[in-house]
Design goal:
This protein has 156 residues and is of the alpha/beta class. The protein has 5 helices and 4 strands, in the order βαβαββααα. Helix 3 packs across helix 4 (116-129) and helix 4 (116-129) packs across helix 5 (137-155).
């Protein structure tokens, strides 16, 4: 049975702009739609461009901001060894960090709502924690398809 331990941190300038309930729903539906059925733990941070820029520079050697960064605590790709459940029976997935200002810019560019774009970025980040990637066209299509399914489920 799926149990989620989710820590959400929202930097002060964005605290009144983002619904924690909406973010929780994005995480939960992503896990459900990808078939996760165990106990999981992950963190979610809604931050500013400066925070995300610094993380991107320090951990990815990319000196610019980005929309979402995911720090996985395990290798979950196709070549990874089977995951061994830790003693507490909780799979520690990692952290997803979303830049709210970048989400706002992208929402405007894509003509998405300011509710939809952060949810899409959270879904995208959680998919990365689960081993999804978009380096190859087939991978990108699979990831986009899953993002769309989860977003559709959020509407209903």
């Amino acid at each position: 049975m799926l149990k989620i331990q989710l820590s959400i941190q929202i930097e002060k300038p964005f605290a009144s702009l983002v619904s924690k309930q909406w973010l929780r729903q994005a995480v939960k539906l992503t896990l459900i739609h990808t078939g996760v059925s165990s106990s999981v733990e992950l963190g979610l941070v809604i931050a500013g461009d400066d925070t995300v820029h610094e993380l991107n520079r320090n951990y990815r050697s990319v000196d610019s901001t980005t929309d979402v960064i995911a720090f996985s605590l395990s290798e979950r790709g196709a070549d990874a060894q089977p995951f061994i459940t830790p003693p507490d029976d909780v799979i520690h997935l990692g952290e997803v960090i979303v830049s709210y200002p970048q989400a706002k810019r992208q929402a405007h560019e894509q003509r998405h709502s300011l509710e939809r774009e952060p949810a899409l970025l959270v879904i995208h980040g959680v998919l990365h924690l689960l081993g999804y990637d978009h380096e190859l066209p087939e991978q990108a299509e699979k990831m986009r398809s899953m993002e769309a399914r989860v977003l559709d489920a959020m509407k209903g």
